Amino acid sequence: MRLGLAGTGRIGARHAEILHRIDEVDSLVLADADVARARGVAAGLDAEFTEDTEELFGRGIDGLVVAAATDAHPKLILRAVEAGIPVFCEKPVAKDVAGTIEVLDRIRGTGVEVQVGFQRRFDAGYAAAREAVGSGAVGRVHTLRATTLDPAPPPAEYIPRSGGLFRDCGVHDYDIIRWVTGREIVEAYALGTNRGAEFFAEAGDVDTGAAVLTLDDDTLALTSAGRYNGAGYDVRLEVLGSRGSIAAGLDDRLPMRSAEPGVSWPPGPAHPGFLERFHPAYVRELETFVDVVAGRAASPCTVSDALEAFYVAEACELSRHQRRPVRLAELR
């Protein structure tokens, strides 16, 4: 199998390393707007590289992995689908809801698979939580608590093009809540604050956010996201039910210490970032994409799934600005 990869930044380079180790992938062709960067990553993996992403489509690739800047995602997805090439694209599909809907409309009925990169669906803990809900082991779910806290902010130049905290960071929680529960989110009430670097406020963003989400069966989900969790990278989902509870991310590397005397758990060290925390999930995610390219599987995370999570993020952003609950039906 011959795969193309567009974008060799931090996540793209990690994807290239993973794909290089998958036996069924015979060769990789890399491209990046920064040609020198693509050349460097390719050299380290004994892979090929091209001088621009368009050239990827003339290299006989069987599948395309998109890890380029967000603005390039729609064009690359559509170019690949038009050529009949299955695509894996890191979230988001596009920078806004309208762009995501346009991509969805144009790929509908083509029969070409598009897989969107929500890697938490491939994490063992989140998968176990989904199984516990689906089997009825936790009983009737009444509350979920989802957390995504970065140990330090991303670079200042990233924030204006990130889409904001709810679209960039919280969207992973919204997707995984849908996936674990099998329910739809129908309303959001969100707040955000800035007590850190000025570049967040200058970009119209916040460095800390929280939302109360209502699911279609009246289950409540409480979500929090932040850029200044100095203890380490903290990503969890707690599912509380009438019979029991279960949590993903509650492991020995949880960046939290108990205030109770004599309690030394968790011992640490804390997860330093998302690449380390979710490395096994990234591997399973790309192995699944290889199955998609080979025709052995359908996309496990579609553009429609990405759109639903994006609707929730949009509702949170509108709620933050207007200080009111926002029904997702308002945005459809």
TrEMBL record:
Keywords: Oxidoreductase. GO terms for molecular function: nucleotide binding; oxidoreductase activity. This is Myo-inositol 2-dehydrogenase/D-chiro-inositol 1-dehydrogenase. Residues 2-118 form the Gfo/Idh/MocA-like oxidoreductase N-terminal domain. It holds the Pfam family GFO_IDH_MocA. Residues 126-246 form the GFO/IDH/MocA-like oxidoreductase domain. Belongs to the Gfo/Idh/MocA family. It comes from the Bacteria.
